[in-house]
Amino acid sequence: MKKSIAMSLAVATTMAFGTTNSDLATMKAEIEALKQEVASLKEAKAAETTSSSTIEKLTKKVNDIKEHDANDNIKWGVDLRTAMDSLSYKMADGTKRSNDSLLTTRLWLNMAYAPDANNVFKGLLAYNKAFGADFGGNGSGAMPRGWGMDTFDWITNEALTNNNLKVKEAYWLYMGDSMGEANIPWTVSFGRRPSTDGMLANLREGDDTYKSPLAHMINVEFDGASASMNLGNVTGIPGASVKLCLGQGSTNATPMFGGPTNYSDNENNIKDIKLAGVILTPYDDGQITSKIQIYRGFDLPGYSVADINIMMGGGAAPTTMYQFGNIDGYAWSTLVNGIGEDGILAETKLFASLAMSKTHPDAGSQMLGSIDSETGTSYWLGGQIPVLGGDFGVEFNHGSKYWRPFTYGEDTMAGSKLAVRGDAWEAYYTYPITKALSLQARYTYMDYDYTGSNNFFGADGMPMSVDFVKTGGAGPVAQAITVDKASDFRFYARYKF
Q1: Residue 259: its pLDDT value, please?
Q2: What angle do CA 209, 215, 220 make, to 5 degrees?
Q3: What is d(CA 456, CA 366) in angstroms, rounded to the nearest whole number?
Q4: Which of 188, 191, 187, 145 is nearest to 168 (CA)?
Q5: Is 116 helix (H, G, I), strand (E, B) or coil?
Q6: Are 485 and 445 in contact (CB under 8 A)?
Q7: Which residues pair with 437 in a beta bridge?
Q8: How far apart are CA 126 and CA 212, in angstroms?
Q9: Contact partners, residue 363, CB within 8 Å, separation at least 6
Q10: How much is the pLDDT for 100?
Q11: Within 10 A of 78 (CB to CB), how many other CB atoms are there?
Q12: How far is CA 70 from each of CA 109, 176, 497, rounded to the nearest angstrom?
């Protein structure tokens, strides 16, 4: 622009030497006009530079504010379920017990906070309560509904309790981009881990994603740690990974003001209950997911033979627990998410899971009522297909005589179906009303072959043939307290967003 203006001035000056006074006056006026135009252009350029700088500063500040707001606030999610359960029990003595309309409200408040791309905090506050006032023994000598919460927090948020909001999950997760020179993404996490509604159980719960570990063997709340490595990049196998899990299910630390040495080991109580395991993912391409879980639980509790005999004779229920030994668990679960390219088969899910438990009783102890190492097995089959805009599912599982998983926190009011020593059938239909609201009807039926399915690891977990109990072989008290068959029909409305 400057070069063009200079050339114009030079031409105008050259032409002036052969012109009249009138022409010179005209040219002077044009030169003045050009000067003013140049000055205006300079001002506009300066204003443009100032404006651009201001906009850049404002844009940066807005971006800083957005980044601060995104990273400096916990993101909340709400999961509110209102359900009605109709429960029915057939006892070994032929009597029946039931509750036709158990109304409950379950509230989950999900929390998440990510200060950067590698760190995540997650938490879940929970409330689970029957409609109406909290009830207890009412002077009858019966245990209050919340019994065991102070001793076993494996089912803190699965058991119906009071109006209190409790912590179900609270943990931090660090996600490493690569381990050394190897292209191996890795994670490590500590806290109250997400250990209920794991793989396969999430289908019946109406959840697209599952938590860790595998639901066939472990479905309880616990505190612990985990570390994982994604091996897909180095093995070439889609989704290949290995995950180490450590957990603790109780502590024998002396409570505050419990003596002169606060929080020291209390040798009069049972030892800490601990668990260590590994979860292997040999293959996961999104359509086919296969996982293997291996673990050992240490110093597991239960009730003594003497206390159980007293109860069977009509005496008071035992209140003191002892420890009986260790237990191993193995599970292999495979889910096929879609068995075709188009139509209903593309959205059909099929799964199969095999599991085994093996006891290791302490010397002189009767674990599950036996001084020998006993092996239990279980298999679990199921499928889910889309029907009329919703999902219809059917499941079946069977457990053997000495089958013993950690599924105390399973979301079934009549007891864990996956712990059944016998057969269990289940059918459900989940229908989404909106993106946030869904309805479900579910029926669970459990037919017990042996007792002790939902008990602990001492004589209380001893498997007696239900047919033997029904004939009176174990006495009238055993007949009265042994469940032969149980069922739970549930209908719920669930808001999740």
Answers
A1: 79
A2: 105
A3: 12
A4: 191
A5: coil
A6: yes
A7: 495
A8: 18
A9: none
A10: 95
A11: 12
A12: 19, 21, 18
The pTM of the full predicted model, rounded to 2 decimals, is 0.83
pLDDT tens for each residue of 139-167: 445 555 444 434 556 777 777 777 789 99
Q: Transcribe 60-88 into DSSP letters.
A: HHHHHHHHHHHHSS-EEEEEEEEEEEEEE
Token pair belonging to 205: 């719960």
Q: Hey, how many other C-beta atoms are within 10 angstroms of the C-beta on 441?
A: 14
Tens digit of pLDDT for each residue in 88-107? 999 999 999 999 999 999 99
The residue type at 367 = M
CA neighbor of 330 nearest in space, from 280, 282, 382, 285 = 280
Residue 234 one-letter amino acid: V
Q: How far, in Å, CA of 302 to CA of 315, rounded?
A: 18
Position 153 scores a pLDDT of 66
Helix (H, G, I), strand (E, B) or coil at 448: strand
Phi, psi of 45 (to 5 degrees): -65, -45
Single-letter residue type at 401: K
Q: Are 222 and 245 in contact (CB under 8 A)?
A: no
Q: Would you give the DSSP letter of residue 129?
A: E
pLDDT at 27 over 80: no
